[in-house]
Design a protein that fits this description.
Chains A, B: It is found in: Mitochondrion inner membrane; Peroxisome. Chains A, B: Keywords: Calcium, Coiled coil, FAD, Flavoprotein, Membrane, Metal-binding, Mitochondrion, Mitochondrion inner membrane, NAD, NADP, Oxidoreductase, Peroxisome, Transit peptide. Chains A, B: This is NADH:ubiquinone reductase (non-electrogenic). Chains A, B: It holds the Pfam family NDH2_C. Chains A, B: It is an enzyme of class 1 (oxidoreductase). 2 copies of one chain form a homodimer. Chain A contains 21 helices and 26 strands. By secondary structure, chain A is an alpha/beta fold. In chain A, the strands form 9 sheets. A 5-stranded parallel sheet of chain A has the order 5-2-1-9-20. Chain A has a 4-stranded parallel sheet with strand order 13-12-11-17. Chain A has a 3-stranded antiparallel sheet with strand order 6-7-8. In chain A, helix 1 (about 1-15) runs antiparallel to helix 2, helix 3 runs parallel beside helix 18 (about 470-485) and helix 14 (about 400-415) packs across helix 15. Chain A is globular, with a radius of gyration of 27 Å. Chains A and B meet through helix 1, helix 2, strand 4, helix 5 and strand 5 of A and helix 2, strand 4, helix 5, strand 5 and helix 7 of B.
Chain lengths: ~575, ~575
C-alpha cells in the first residue's frame, strides 16, 4: 500500500514521462534510496489516533514515556493481545547520544527524532498515543492522571485519566541540580532535544553579544567564557564539540575570536570520564590541556549567579569564575511524579524506582519500571542463603553434597548473576571448586557442607553486585526484554522458563533481565573518539571516530533519520557548521 | 531587457516541451555537488566581527536589515572605499518565498537561511555586522540608536549608537493587523522564520490535542479547523501546503483525520490571488473547492477571540467561526521605528517611507530606503510639465517643434517611466505621434505645440503610474541597484549618466531605478503551481511546479542552502513530512 503511494507520488509529478521519473528517483536517492524503499514496507494496520472505546477484554498496557526504554518496548512488543496506550509529552523518540552534536549544529535536531506514530503505525496492534504528561500514578486504583502540556484551546479538558492492567514506567530522569542555588535559573541543561536547541541558540547569542561595539575586552572575554559543569561523557563531548565549532567554523568568520573564547570544564572528582578506563581519561585530559580547554578537577560548584560561578576547591578555598554561558551536566535526579509514586509503594530515600530482576517495581505486581527512572534492586545471595541451602539439600540431610550443589548451580547463577560473575572472575568452572575452599583437604567429589560452611563459601559473591549505568544501552535492552516477556506472558505462565524460586515453590515465569555491555564511546573532538569495548579493549583516535560514525548511523531508529544524520555529517564536512541564530 | 527575452524564450520552450523543466531541475541538482566544493573555498579577506576604530576617512555606510533588500545591497557592493556597518536583529538572510514550505515541514527552516557573516566574509571590504535592533533614527545628527535583542548578561550595555554618512534603511515591514481586536493575541503570522517554525509546532499541536481521549467529536473538529485570513500568495500557499500535509502525511498516521480537518481561507475581496491573472484565480478557486478547502470571499474579519473568528459579510451579516489555529496573512504594515522616522522627515499619513526614483528618502539627502519599508513616490509629469516644456523648448520660442521634442524624449522617458509605458501601450514609436494627437491635421514634421497643447497631449500619461508590489523580487533589484550606485558614486559625480534635471540644471548622477518583472509563482499544492510570467504568459500545473523547483533552487543565496533545500525536497518525496513536535 505504501509502495503504491510512493509510486503514485512520483507518477503524479511525472505522469507524462515515466521513464524520466525512474531516472530522477535513481539519481536523487542513489544508494540509500533503494534501502529506504525496502524500509517503506506495507503498513498493514489501521490505527486511529483518536481514542476508540475498547469493548474487548484485552489487557490494557499503559506505557509512560517515549525515550529509549519506552520506544524499545513498543518496537519489540508483538503480541496483539494487548490494548496499548502510550502517554508522553514528546510525540517523538530522540536519539539522545547525538544531543551534544546538536548543540553546535554538527547534526540537526530534526535529524535525530522519529515521530512515535511512525514507529507504532508499522505494528499490527492496538496502540494509541497521547501527547500528555502523566502527573500522578494511582497504583491502588490502577489509573494514571495525565495533562496535556498545551492546555490552550482545550476548554479545560486538558486533564484526563487512563486506566491500566499493566503499567510500564519509562519516564526517564531529570537533570540533578543537587539543590545548588542558582543552577536552575542560570544554567542550561542537556537532556532534551529542546535543551540542545536552546544551547545552540545561546552559543550563537554569546558570539553575537560579544561582538557588540561598546564592550570592553574584559567583557567580551567574560561573555565568551563557556563553563561546563560535570566531566561525564555528555559534558566532555559538549566541550569537544564547542571547541571544534570555535576552531573550525567561528574562526573562519573572525580569526580574532580564538583569543577571546575560553572553555572551562569543572569536575568535582579527580578525573573527567571517571567511568572509563584510565588510559582514556588520561588521553582526554592531555588532549584538552593541549587544546586550551581548562579542565579543573576537584572543584565543587557551590553557587551560580547570572554572571559568576562559585566553586570550592578541596582545600576549602572558594573562588568565583565569571562566565557567559554555563551548561550543567552532572547526572540525573528523580522526577517529582516518580518520587510521589515511590512514596505510595513504600520506597523512601532511594535514588530511583527500585525493581526486581524482572523489572517489576518492588511493592507492586503489575507495574514495571525501566530506563533512567528505575534501578534494579538485585537480591543478595546472603539474604536468601538459608532458602537456597534448603532447596538445594534435596534429601534434607542437613548437608549439601557435590551432586546436589551441581544440580542447582544453573538456577543459582541465573537467579543471582553475581554468583556467575564471581565464578568467572575466580576462573572457577565448577561450583564445587568454590565450595571446596571452605572445606580444604576434602576430596572434591565427596564434599559435604553444612549451612554454615555453605554460607562461608558464598560470603564474598555479593561483592560482585553493581548497579547498571543510566545509559541508553541499558534502557533499550530493558525495553526489549520486557516486551519479550509481554509477548510470551501466557506461554510462560503455563510453562515457566525462569530459575527456581528459592523462597517459594516452582519456577519464575521468565529469566531475569541480564545486561549485555557492548562498549561505550567518548567523542573527544577533532575527529577523535575514545572507545571502550567489552574485553577491556580500548581504542582512541581517528579510527574510533569512524567506528563511532558507523555505530551511531546503524543504531538510528529509522532509515529516514539514518539518511538525515549521514547527510548532516556530510554537509558539515563540506560546508562546516551553520551559525544562524535559528 | 535582454534577460526578459531570454526568459521569454525559456518560457516558450517550457510551454512546448514541458519535460524540459524537469531537465533543468536535474541539471541544477547534478551541477550542485561539484560546484558546492568550489563554493567552500578559503576565505580571502580578514574581517573581525569586533569593532575596529576606523581612523581612515572612509565614508560610513550603515545598512539596517538583512532581508532581501539589505542582503542584495551587501552582495552587490564592491567599492572598498566605504566603511560598512550592518545592523539587524537577524544574523542571517532568509529565503522568505519558501517560508510557507517551512510551516508544514516540506523544507526545514535552517535550509533557507544563510548567515550574514558568510555572505560578507567573501567580500574584500570593511563590513561589520551587529546583531541588534535599530529603535531610533536620528537624521539630524546622522546617527542611529540600537539595542541588542538579547539584553541579559550585558551589564546594561545592550544599547549603542552608530554614526553614519549614508544610511540604507531596509528593515522590511511587519504584519498588518488593521487594529482588528484579538488578532495580535490569537493569530499566527508568517513573516519571519520563527513564525513559520511556530506555525509548524502549532499545526502538530492541534493534531495532538485533537487526539486526546476526553474530547467530543465537535471539539476535535474545532481544534482541527485551520483558518487562514488573507487570500494573497502567502495565504494560498500555506493553505495548499497544509492540505497536502494532511492528505499526504497525516492521513497515513491516522486515516480518520481527513474527515475532521477543515481548512478555511477568508478573503475580504471578491477573489483570492487578486494580483494574478484571472485564469490563475479561477483555477485556484476551483482546485481548492474540489479539494474541500473552503474559500470564503467577501468576508471581512472584525474580531478574533481565542476560539472564534467573527466575520462580516458584504450583506452586513456577522457570523462566528470556531477555529483551532488561525494564520493572519493580509498584508504589511509600517514598523514603529519607521513611522517615527517618517514624522521626523515630514512624511505623515503614508503607508511606507516615500523615496524618489533613486531610492533616496524624500526630505533627506543621505538616507536611502528600499524593500518593503519603502515606496517610490514617482514624480508626475503633470507636476513638472512647465519645466519640461521650458527645457525642451531650446530656442525659447514658446513652442515645441518635432525636432525639439525628439531631442528630449529619451530623457523624459528615463525620468518619467510612465511616458515610456504609455507610448508602448499605445504602440507609438515616436513622441511626435503622441503630440500630433492634440494637433490634428498638421503635418508630423512641421508640428509646433504651445504649452497648453503640450499639456493636453501628455495629460493621460500619469495614469500609467503604479506602485511596485512589496515582493522579494522588487527588494532584491532595489538592493542591487543601490549598490551599483554606491559602487560608481564618484565616477557618476564627475560624469553623470542620468537624465536631464528638468527642474534644475545639468543631469542626474544616476539613471533612476527601474523594476524588471520576471514573473510570479503561486504554488497551489499537489505538485501544481501557477506561474505568471512576463508577456502575459500563464502556466498552471505540474510542469510549472518543476519550473518553480528549478527557479527557487537556482535563486538560493549560497550553494549550501541550495543543496539543503534540494535534499529537503528529495527527503519529502521519499519519506514524507515529519510530524515530530520539534
Amino acid at each position: 500500500m505504501k509502495t503504491f503511494t510512493l509510486y503514485e507520488r512520483f507518477s503524479r509529478a511525472f505522469h507524462d514521462y515515466p521513464n524520466l521519473s525512474k531516472l530522477v528517483v535513481l539519481f536523487t536517492v542513489s544508494g540509500g534510496g533503494l534501502v529506504a524503499y525496502s524500509d517503506a514496507n506495507p503498513i498493514s494496520g489501521y490505527q486511529s489516533i483518536f481514542p476508540v472505546e475498547t469493548e474487548n477484554k484485552k489487557k490494557r498496557v499503559v506505557v509512560l514515556g517515549t525515550g529509549w526504554a519506552g520506544t524499545s518496548f513498543l518496537k519489540n512488543l508483538k503480541n496483539p493481545e494487548y490494548d496499548v496506550q502510550v502517554v508522553s509529552p514528546r510525540n517523538y523518540f530522540a536519539f539522545t547520544p547525538l544531543l551534544p552534536s546538536v548543540t553546535c549544529g554538527t547534526v540537526e535536531a530534526r535529524s535525530i527524532v522519529e515521530p512515535i506514530r511512525n514507529i507504532i503505525r508499522k505494528k499490527n496492534m492496538d496502540i494509541r498515543y497521547w501527547e500528555a504528561e502523566c502527573f500522578k500514578i494511582d497504583a491502588q486504583n490502577k489509573r494514571i492522571y495525565c495533562r496535556s502540556n498545551k492546555p490552550s484551546n482545550l476548554n479545560g479538558k486538558q486533564e484526563f485519566v487512563v486506566e491500566y492492567d499493566y503499567l510500564v514506567v519509562a519516564m526517564g530522569a531529570r537533570s540533578n541540580t543537587f539543590n545548588i542555588p542558582g543552577v536552575e535559573e542560570n544554567c542550561k541543561f542537556l537532556k532534551e532535544v529542546e535543551d540542545a536547541q536552546e544551547i545552540r541558540r545561546s552559543v550563537i547569542d554569546c558570539f553575537e553579544k560579544a561582538s557588540l561595539p561598546n564592550l570592553s575586552e574584559e567583557e567580551r572575554k567574560r561573555i565568551l567564557h563557556f563553563v561546563i559543569v560535570g566531566g561525564g561523557p555528555t559534558g566532555v563531548e559538549f566541550a569537544a564539540e564547542l571547541h571544534d565549532f570555535v576552531n573550525e567554523d567561528m574562526v573562519k568568520l573572525n580569526p580574532g575570536v580564538k583569543e577571546l573564547v575560553k572553555i572551562t570544564l569543572l569536575e568535582a572528582t579527580d578525573h573527567i570520564l571517571g567511568m572509563f578506563d584510565k588510559r582514556i581519561t588520561e588521553f582526554a585530559e592531555k588532549k584538552f590541556k593541549r587544546e586550551g580547554i581548562d579542565v579543573r578537577t576537584g572543584a565543587m560548584v557551590v553557587k551560580v549567579s547570572d554572571k559568576e560561578i562559585s566553586t570550592k576547591e578541596r582545600s576549602g578555598e572558594v573562588s568565583s569564575i565569571p562566565y557567559g554561558m554555563a551548561v550543567w551536566s552532572t547526572g540525573i535526579g528523580t522526577r517529582p511524579v516518580i518520587r510521589d509514586f515511590m512514596q505510595q509503594v513504600g520506597q523512601i530515600n532511594r535514588r530511583a524506582l527500585a525493581t526486581d530482576e524482572w523489572l517489576r517495581v518492588d511493592g507492586t505486581d503489575n507495574i514495571y519500571a525501566l530506563g533512567d527512572c528505575a534501578t534494579i534492586n538485585q537480591r543478595k545471595v546472603m539474604e536468601d542463603i538459608s532458602a537456597i541451602f534448603n532447596k538445594a539439600d534435596k534429601d534434607n540431610s542437613g548437608t549439601l553434597s557435590a551432586k546436589e550443589a551441581r544440580e542447582v548451580i544453573m538456577d543459582i547463577c541465573e537467579r543471582y548473576p553475581q554468583v556467575d560473575l564471581y565464578l568467572k572472575n575466580k576462573q572457577l568452572r565448577d561450583i564445587v571448586d568454590l565450595l571446596k575452599e571452605s572445606k580444604k583437604g576434602v576430596e572434591k567429589e565427596s564434599i559435604e557442607l553444612n549451612i554454615e560452611e555453605f554460607k562461608s563459601a558464598l560470603s564474598q559473591v555479593d561483592s560482585q553486585m553493581k548497579n547498571l549505568p543510566a545509559t541508553a544501552q541499558v534502557a533499550a535492552q530493558q525495553g526489549a526484554y520486557l516486551a519479550d516477556c509481554f509477548n510470551r506472558m501466557e506461554d510462560c505462565e503455563k510453562d515457566p522458563e525462569g530459575p527456581l524460586r528459592f523462597r517459594g515453590s516452582g519456577r519464575h515465569r521468565f529469566r531475569p533481565f541480564r545486561y549485555k555491555h557492548f562498549g561505550q564511546f567518548a567523542p573527544l573532538g577533532g575527529e577523535q573518539t575514545a572507545a571502550q569495548l567489552p574485553g577491556d579493549w580500548v581504542s582512541i583516535g581517528h579510527s574510533s571516530q569512524w567506528l563511532w560514525y558507523s555505530v551511531y548511523a546503524s543504531k538510528q531508529v529509522s532509515w529516514r533519520t539514518r539518511m538525515l544524520v549521514i547527510s548532516d555529517w556530510t554537509r558539515r564536512f563540506i560546508f562546516g557548521r551553520d551559525s544562524s541564530r535559528i
